[in-house]
Amino acid sequence: MVSACAQTPPQPVVPSTVSVCDEQGCAERPRDYESFRPQRTAEEEAGVQQIAALEAIAKKDPSAAYDLALRLFRGDGVKQDLYRSVQWMRDAAERGHFDAQKALGRLYLTGLAEMGSDPMEAQKWLTITAGRGDKEAEKLLEEANAAKQELADDYRWRQRWRQTFYNYWAHSYPYYWRWGAGRWYYYYY
Q1: H or E stretch including 41?
Q2: Angle value at C-alpha 138, between 134 and 143, nearest 5 degrees
């Protein structure tokens, strides 16, 4: 029994990685990881301050929100950020900015990056601008109406065949791999 007391207590396990977070997200890095982060130049710092000042104005003025959305979309004086661009464009449109409403209608009609098109949302914004007499918006609204009809037809087709496809996935397709003896192995019967 005396020998049991002489044992050293277990040492805590120190993880070999650490979470490093910045404006682009978080990632696991080795504990001894070092990264080069240069200081902003005076010109870059001035640009950051200018965009911050424009954001403050944009909270009150829809034309500034529209302008900020374009700058974020184009990466003009700021790092390109499509998500924030759409947020500011929507903010300006909801506050009645005509160009923002039309731009948002076009955006929802065509889609942007990983955001697919949304003909119903496009129709909403283009109806507003076409109602204000914009000829381009009238043409885009026709396209949105056609796209919305295609979407409705596609939805009806998917609803009709959904159960059939589900049954194939649920019952007809075979498995090729099985788990056994502590591992996966190829097995097709």
Answers
A1: none
A2: 145
